[in-house]
Amino acid sequence: MMDWFGFLFLIEVTIGGLLSGVMYALVAIGFVLIYKTSGVLNFAQGAMVLFAALTFVSLVEAGVPFVFALIISAAIMVALGFAIERTVLRPLANRSPMTLFMATLGLSYIIEGAAQIIWGTEVHRLDLGISNAPFQVAGVFISTFDLVAAAIAGVLVASLTAFFRWTRTGLAFRAVADDQFAALAVGLRLDRTWATVWAAAGIVALVAGLLWGARLGVQFSLSLIVLKALPVLVLGGFDSVLGAIVAGLAIGATEKLAEVYLGPFVGGGIEGWFAYVVALLVLLIRPSGLFGQKLVERF
Amino acid sequence: MSAIVDTPPQTQNYLRHWPLVAVLLAAFIGVPAFAPVYVLEAILLPFLALALAGVGLNLLTGYGGQVSLGSAAFMAVGAFAAYNIQLRLALALPVTILLSALTAATVGLIFGLPSLRLRGFYLAVSTLAAQFFVQWALTKFGWFSNYSPSGVISAPGLTLFGYSLDSTTSRYLLALTLVTLITLGVWAFTNGPLGNDLIAIRDNETAAQIIGVPVLKTKLVAFAVSSAIIGVAGFLWAFTYLRTVEPAGFDLDRSFDILFIIIIGGLATLRGAFLGAGLIVVFPLLLSRLSALAFGGMIDSGVLELVQRIILGSLIIAFLIVEPNGLAAILDRVKRGFARTF
Amino acid sequence: MSFLKRITITALAVATLAAGSAARADEQYFPLQSYRVGPYAAGGTGFFGGFIDYMTLINTRDGGVNGVKLVWDECETEYAVEKGVECYQRQKSHADIAAWNPLSVGIAYAMIDGVTADKVPLITVNHGRTDTTDGRVFPYVFPLLLNPYSETSGIVNYIASKEGGLEALKGKKIVVLYHGSPYGKETIPIYELLAAKYGFTVVQIEVPHPGNEQGAQWLQIRREAPDYVVLRGWGVMNPVALTTAQRNGFPADHIIGNVWSNSEEDVIPAGDAAIGYTAITTQASGNQYPVLQDIIKTVYDAGQGNLSDKSRIGSVYHNLGIVNGILNVEAIRIAQAKFGNRTLTGDEVRWGFEHLQLNPARVKELGAENLFHSINVTYDNHEGEGYVTFQQWDGKKWNVVSDWIAPDWALLRPIITKSSEAYAAEKGLPIRTSEEADQVTQ
Question: In sequence order, what are the residues at sequence separation of 6 or more whose Cβ sits closer than 8 angstroms to the Cβ of residue C24?
């Protein structure tokens, strides 16, 4: 039987896991935006996160005020998104998804290399002014930082949803996501939509980069957080923002619960692969993720 | 209906084999006689191991249309299996290699099971489970590394029929022999009935099923054979090239390298794996030598590495844009050009 | 900061080198398999920066080691084994190699057979394979100053000193949070051994590589409620451990870092979560030591420093590089005293390392008093009984908070010998005697 303390601990593990899950979802959303419109699994998302965070932190260290640094970094990420569309995606239009995936791998080399040549390889501290200290609710520790991060993620998702629901570009985005050929047929500019989406993914990368950067420090390893986002994508479906959020929460919580309660029996350290196995098992029942569209089957 | 990978048209003329024979003669006789140790140790040995891994992955991805991001894990399985078989059973080298290939095939079969249900990127990302699980298990359980305190093992010596194969040249010849034999085997496989089934499934699974191709069986066989070959590549990497075995050497980056090799080299061609591996191994070395010559060591080695990375990334994208069928297609064009000129 | 500046600095250094070699003086060459990019760049730039700075100091201040100029070149490995091997193959054709210093266990492993055949020493300062301490089995490998076992013993001894003696460890609970890699796992049996010996409980928890998410591990730690947490981390795992500890309300001053969790780069990203965190080191940080002052004056003020960010002078990795430089240079000096002031062969330098005995007085002469304690390498002890000290992070810099502490070498030696002899048996290697160690290939 589980005693009261044990029960509180279970709650705490679950909450901690859900909050980590928000952080995973934050990275995953960047992938979803791009996949939905262009069918590209953008492996360079991690490099974009690194690039965004490095740009921001270097600006701040150079004495640029916080808000301006944020605006400049966002502008740079938007410009990067447009540049990628122009130089990589457009020449590769109508190619197989695998070719595009490989191109984004190449892209990640370029962005990582460029980020470190421009800004150096030092480790930076990124202070967003959000406290790390925990507070207690009925004996359960909750991290302020994680809550704020979750709130920011919520605002981000809400504004993305609003953008895609109520603006012309957003409508175009949804049209392209629904049916590329029909969208072309009614005269929508595919390239423009793609550019916008890559720019939006750049902004998402900036937000993820800031929040993750505050946790990890801004350094090369920041680009490795994509590995946390991939199982979330598989589970939630590559083309569903809602799926990314739900799957992020699910994976965050399962992974923590597994590490804490299952880990000791196999020697621990299972977080690296456990999420993938969970995603796999779910996939065996639902082959295109929890919220993914069935037509993915066609590949 | 779009496949997940672009595939080139099959080339058909297999009659003119003389260039291949010439290459093999040069590799078996010319290279050991003339090449300096550096070329063997730092270029040809990794080249052979990676090319073989490329051949294995090409079978799965190029011919079978199933993308795997876990190749390095199967290399690790092959390497660790060979280490443990040699350590615990002390069998003859060919048997050791065969058994480690079988082990890799078995593990490949298990991680290939999802391919029966999953397609495209869902399958690709799922193969990452293999990547991370295998690395974890090899680090976690000391038995695999014979409880070596630091988990890194020096590969034991290689002997064949009482002769030591530890010299650079004999390791090279061992690797070359294995790669040649396996590549011939794959060539026969892809041109046989199973190979045709595989291509049929890649091009249109439903249609293949209707005309009576055993889809499930073929897919699993592809996974098993591909993993077995990649396992042997892992053996080559650990035993003939680095001569140490450690899980960290078989990380995700290695898996991506192998994927690069077959995409840049050319999918569904055997030449492609070799051309791609040549590029991945030789290109960075060439670049660093060239810049050392051009700038006389003025550029910091770190910056150089970053510049190389940018150039390599650009090259990958440029290749994908300009020649989607890879180096193999370029080679074909060059050959045709020659044929016209003479 | 900027790489452009770095390029010009390197150019200058190369120009000086070129001028030096034109005189055709005796030279001793150091192949540097450095890593300045990738996940471990911070360690690589600091360590190799310090090493190069010290060699530059010796060349400019003293005109080399007894007139023998030190030369080097760098080959980038990104910490990847196969790149390190390629560098080894490339650099080994260079004449007059003194010693290899790859600062990577994986690369060092892949080179052991090679350097043994070449008869050139391989230095793995503060890290490396523990059983290479036994020089009878590994004649050319030197885990100088501190091997992982001694480090473990040093940490436990420090905790004991904080608690009031080894007896006070009884009944205490220590959690070891280790990186999920062969490196991280290497000391598991030693913690078990020491726990059994001193009667404390040890719980060892793994953090999967790279360690950018540790919520679960720190929840487990909170449940265990240990007296101390030992952080056996690497790279990004360290700052994340500290911030996660703070989020779980675990006090930083009860977290003790190991030798790869002890740098500025490990704590700065964690911000105020790192204040009070304490870590082991073999070399104190700071630039107040005479040798560092010399480096600042002779090397940096002349614009020849290797670090692009001058604020990193005297940082943990930089000082490790400098100490590593001192050890390499002194080994050459000691060998020169026997073989003559000329370019030495690798085997002669090996002899020098096997007689690398620097007592505190000699360390003081070298301008390194309190930077590191002493070293006492012999043919069968390639570690050389390095002392350790502990530094606490105050949010800005590290402050030494302990004396020089001796690990329990006598306790550990039989375990090391058992492992090295098993290795010798497995590989069919001879066990060297002291007479054999004195036979030197010239």
Answer: none
